[in-house]
Design brief:
The chain is α/β, with parallel strands linked by helices. It is about 60% helix and about 10% strand. The chain contains 9 helices and 5 strands; from the N terminus they run H-H-H-H-E-H-E-H-E-H-E-H-E-H. Helix 1 packs antiparallel against helix 2, helix 2 runs parallel beside helix 4 and helix 6 (about 135-145) runs parallel beside helix 7. The longest helix is centred in the N-terminal third of the chain and has 21 residues, at about 1-20. The termini are far apart.
């Protein structure tokens, strides 16, 4: 009964934290994060809570409840939370799980989701080569040719950059037969229809889903 009571109390605190994040209450949410960490709450549960909060903020933006200022505020909250959680997210040993090339496509300078994705990959034992933002296809091409990564992950948040994303997928797939089942696209603008349009079968809306895809790639289709 005690265990159930404790779990119930934790669930309520996590729900409260989630509400604070979605309501964009930066000081309160970060203070609660620090408090829960100090009390020994699993950092993975707290990270998941912030990621869910970001997802819900994104949904509110998509439905017109929140506007661009809210997205900017949510991004700052997530950045601060990531810095607080970073010491608890101990990096794994590079090359144990594979090598991942990532970057945000040309015309798009969003990096919040990409940076969180890179952190999650690193903490799960992947070697990460991050090309940054506004990356033209030639840069992906050069690094892919040089490194032959296990996965090539391209972030795209702006629908105005979808055509660049489509071009990048085509060039990479044409140039590297090994890349056919290793190109992963991600970003809040993506859905099954857009993924099909740009020519990929592997796509993710958030960092956690992208991590699972990369783990599956390495497990089922190791690089040669």
């Amino acid at each position: 009964m005690t265990d159930r009571t404790e779990q119930g109390a934790l669930d309520l605190r996590l729900k409260r934290l989630l509400d604070l994040i979605v309501q964009l209450k930066e000081e309160e949410s970060l203070a609660e994060l620090k408090s829960m960490l100090a009390e020994g709450v699993d950092h993975r549960d707290l990270l998941a809570c912030f990621m869910e909060g970001m997802r819900r903020v994104g949904t509110k933006f998509e439905t017109g409840v929140y506007f661009i200022a809210a997205l900017i505020m949510a991004g700052e909250i997530m950045r601060s939370a990531t810095e607080i959680l970073r010491p608890y997210l101990k990096p794994g040993h590079p090359n144990n799980k594979g090598r991942v090339l990532i970057g945000t496509i040309e015309g798009d300078i969003h990096d919040l989701g990409k940076n969180l994705f890179a952190l999650l990959l690193n903490c799960n034992g992947f070697e990460v080569i991050d090309l940054g933002v506004d990356v033209p296809v030639v840069n992906f091409l050069q690094k892919a040719r040089e490194l032959k990564p296990d996965a090539i992950c391209i972030s795209c948040v702006l629908t105005t950059s979808v055509e660049y994303l489509k071009d990048a997928v085509k060039v990479l797939a044409d140039e590297f037969p090994f890349a056919k089942n290793r190109i992963v696209v991600g970003g809040t603008c993506l859905d099954a229809r857009l993924a099909e349009y740009v020519g990929v079968s592997l796509w993710a809306r958030d960092a956690a889903e992208g991590l699972k895809i990369c783990q599956k790639i390495v497990h089922t289709n190791p690089a040669v």
